[in-house]
Design brief:
There is one protein chain. This protein has 162 residues and is α+β, with helices and mostly antiparallel strands. It has one domain: Gcn5-related N-acetyltransferase (GNAT) (Aminopeptidase), CATH 3.40.630.30. Strands 1-2-3-4-5-7-6 form a 7-stranded mixed β-sheet, sandwiched between helices. Strand 3 and strand 4 form a beta hairpin. The radius of gyration is 16 Å and the shape is globular. It binds coenzyme A.
Length: 162
């Protein structure tokens, strides 16, 4: 298993992982593809898209452009010194094995390296598993956004790690 930067070729595999996950942020193919377009002012903002993939595919010698088994992905955006975790999804079959923690710890390390100020994120109030993960890594609840989510409508808890 390894973490690498995603490319637009990963979009179908990322969408497959997201579709198994009602708690994830749901985006259209176009929104996924837009993640890979250059930001107009890199000094002001940047986007990170990482995927976790199964290394066994590489060892089998198959063409990695044809076979990409994405196990998880993370999307985050920086605006000035603040980061937002925009999406974090682990495939259902490999949850509770530390992959979500691995991705978040890597993001936290990168933000520290870049002397970022904070990481913000929102999560559905009912998503207790994700909330536990964020709390375990030191995120603190800093707000509640009423009716933030649709389909179904639900409040969002706003977390921040300083
Ligand atoms: C939330 C999610 C990313 C966690 O990923 P994961 O790889 O399973 O998480 P980890 O194995 O690293 O778990 C770390 C900690 O999180 C908590 N946790 C994770 N999933 C949990 C669950 N289903 N129930 C309760 N606690 C959970 C636990 O405290 C766990 O620590 P422990 O194993 O020592 O008990 C994953 O469940 C997922 O993709 N869910 C669907 C999408 C989603 O909700 N994304 C978050 C959007 S804000």
């Amino acid at each position: 298993m390894r973490i690498r930067r995603a490319t637009s070729a990963d979009v179908p595999a990322m969408m497959r992982v997201e579709l198994q996950s009602p708690g994830a942020a749901h985006w259209s193919r176009r929104q996924y593809e837009c993640l890979f377009t250059a930001t107009p002012n890199p000094a002001q903002s940047e986007r990170l898209v990482w995927v976790v993939e199964n290394e066994s595919d590489e060892r089998s010698g198959k063409d990695r452009n044809e076979i990409r088994e994405v196990l998880a992905f993370l999307v985050a955006q920086r605006i000035d010194a603040d980061w937002e975790l925009e999406n974090l999804v682990v495939a259902q079959s490999v949850r509770k094995r530390g992959i979500g923690t691995l991705l978040l710890e890597k993001l936290i390390a990168q933000v520290r390296d870049e002397t970022g100020k904070s990481i913000f994120l929102e999560v559905r109030q009912s998503n207790e598993g994700a909330s536990r993960l964020y709390q375990k890594l030191g995120f603190q609840q800093v707000g509640l956004r009423k009716g933030y989510y649709q389909n179904p409508s639900e409040d969002a808890i706003l977390y921040r790690l300083s």
